[in-house]
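User: Okay, second chain of the day. Same drill as before: sequence in, C-alpha cells out.
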Amino acid sequence: MSYLIDIIGSTAIAAAIIFIVLEFNKNVNDVTAEVLLSNISNNEALTSADVIEYDLYKIGYGVTNNAITRADSNYLSFLSDFDNDGSVDSVSYIVGTTSQRLNTANPYDKPLYRKVNNGSRTLLIPVVDCRFSYLDSIGTILSYASLASQAVRNRIKVVNVNLRTESAEPVNNVYQGIDWARTIRPKNL
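Assistant: Same drill. C-alpha cells below.
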C-alpha cells in the first residue's frame, strides 16, 4: 500500500514539475515575441520618423512665399526644393483611415502616406495615430479651422508631430507600441 502512495505522490510531483516547465516555456516564448514585435515596431517607427523629420526641416527651402499649402490635424502639404536643383517640389503627408488599413490584425492601424509632387502615394508606415499641430512665431497654437486661410498658414513657424505605431500582431491581446513626438522649427519659415 505504501508503494501505491509513493507512486501517486511521485506522479503528482512529476506533473507539477512538467506544468511549471511548460508554463515557464510559454512565458519565455511570450516575452520573446513581445521583444521581437516591439523591436520591429520601433525600427519601422524610427525609420519613418527620420524621413518625416528630414522633410519637415526642409519646409520652405527655396520657396519665396506660401510654403505650406495645406495644414490640418492629419494632412500636411508643403513646398520645398529638396534636391537643390532650382525646382520646387510638393510634399504631402496624409493619414488614412482604418478602412484603408493594411492586412494587419491590429484593428486600429491606418496608413500614413507620403506623396512627392504628382507621384503616387507611398506608404510610409501603418500608424494608430498621427497628428500635426501648428504654432506661430510667439508659440500660439493655430486652430485647424483658421488654417483654411493661406494668410494663417503663412504664420506657421513650428510644426508638432505626434505619432503612435503599434505592432501588426498582438501578444496576449496586447499590441506593442511606440510613441514619437517631435517639435520641428523649419529654418525657412
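The chain has one domain: 3-184.

User: Thanks, on to the next one.
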